[in-house]
Amino acid sequence: MKRRVRVAAGMAAVCALASTGRAQDLGPGIRRIADGIYVQSAREVNSTAGIVVTREGVVVIDTGQTPVDSRQVLAAVRTLTPLPVRFVINTEVHPDHTTGNFLFSPPAVVINQTGATEAMRTAENPNRFTTAAPEIRAAAEGYRLVTPHVEYQERMTLRVGERTFELLSLKNAHSEADTAVWLPAERVLFAASVALPESLNNVRPFVTIPDILAATRMLRSLRPDVVVPGHGSPGTTRIFDESERYYTLLVERVGGMVKAGRSLEQIRQELKMPEYAGWAYQDRMPTNIDAAYRAVTGK
Ligand SMILES: [Zn+2]
User: Fold this and answer.
1) Distance in Å, CA 178 to ligand 1 centroid
2) For residue 90, is pLDDT > 60?
3) Closest residue by Cα to residue 219 from 186, 247, 172, 182
4) Which end of the chain has fewer CB atoms < 10 Å from its terminal CB, N or C?
């Protein structure tokens, strides 16, 4: 119940922002979050895709959960403006954010931080659509792996038309190459997948909880009005607060069990986080426990 109220409060902030604009049907799950800025979040756990319209073309931020979503993003762009998509920014390397790159590029130039191309090439499965649902297979027609044309180090400023995009690299926070996109004038932050609303994350072996917390704090310090997470509905910095509370409690509990002499195997079996039982992806808990164990023991 409490959880619902919090989500509702976050959404109210976003809806209030959007309410000044003319309602426009842009397709399933695509809504306006600020002047000229649209977000696709078709289902709560799906990846988000951003459309930012400028006087000199469009910037797309991630390209959809599946090629079906990617085509809906492209159709929404065509409804909004005759201008070309000039840049695609990938907030991470995983296919649910990057597969649709092929629909936008060319002409779009794809950007992510250093290491993205290597990670995408390593993980690429050329047969990935052979067992997919027929509508996804159809939407994937013409698919090819499109990796970033531009890889930046640390941070990058992109100016398109009247808008400024600050690309901020996040280290060891989710995938091999994560980028948050900050629009300082609009106070809108595309936050990548470091913190997901009401959802456990898959904490991979190279990701550390201290790095997640550092990234979360850095992003919160920007003081955005709207936070668009890599998955789920747009909200506010509350997304960061909740993530930080979760990891802090997790590390505290694992730390207590390590002190009490429990092995990692015992902790995996005994540790409970009932406060977060309602979050999505409970099957990711073992990766979270392992990361907390690494944070506590240094192993
Ligand atoms: Zn991911």
Assistant:
1) 9
2) yes
3) 182
4) N
Span from the CA of 170 to the centroid of ligand 1 (angstroms)? 13
Q: Give the confidence band of 5 by pLDDT, cuts at 50, 70, 90.
A: very low
Q: What is the 3-state composition of the chain as percent helix, strand, coil, each rounded to the nearest 5? A: 40, 20, 40
**Element holding 96 (H helix, E strand):** helix 95-98
Ion ligand 1: protein residues whose beta carbon lies under 5 Å: 92, 94, 193
Pick the CATH number of 2-237 from 3.60.15.10, 1.20.1250.20, 1.20.1270.90, 3.30.710.10: 3.60.15.10
Q: How remote is the CA of residue 117 from the centroid of ligand 1, in Å?
A: 15
The tokens describing 287, both together, are 């990766």
In contact, 181 and 52? CB cutoff 8 Å: no
- Residue 227, CA atoms < 13 Å, CB-side half-sphere: 26
pLDDT per position as a tens digit, 154-182: 999 999 999 999 999 999 999 999 999 99
From residue 107, how far is each of 48, 50, 166 by CA, in Å?
22, 18, 22
In the reported structure, the alpha carbon of residue 111 is separated from the centroid of ligand 1 by a whole-number distance in angstroms of 16
Provide the residue ranges of all domains of the chain, joining segments of one domain with +: 2-237
Distance 222 CA to ligand 1 centre (A): 23
CA–centroid distance, 55 to ligand 1, in Å, is 31
- 241-to-69, 104, 228 alpha-carbon distances in Å: 29, 34, 14
Query: Is 20's pLDDT higher than 50?
Result: no
114: phi then psi, degrees, rounded to nearest 5: -55, 140
Angle in degrees, CA 16, 54, 195, rounded to 5? 55
Q: Identify the three-state secondary structure at position 85.
A: strand
Reply yes or no on whether the pLDDT at 45 is more than 90: no
Q: How far is the CA of 260 from the centre of ligand 1 (A)?
A: 34
